Amino acid sequence: MSTLESIIWHTLGYAAMPVIILTGFVGVAAISIWLLSLGKDKEV
């Protein structure tokens, strides 16, 4: 593997974990807000 390929794969590898963690956090937050909104009183 060339040096350029090695740099690309290392960059992708190190970038993947924060993206996965942040995506999971946003997903859980969105589902939680949706579930909480189901029980909210709709009348103003």
TrEMBL record:
InterPro entries: CHP02808. Keywords: Membrane, Transmembrane, Transmembrane helix. The chain crosses the membrane at residues 12-36. The keyword Transmembrane helix applies. This is TIGR02808 family protein. It comes from Photobacterium marinum.
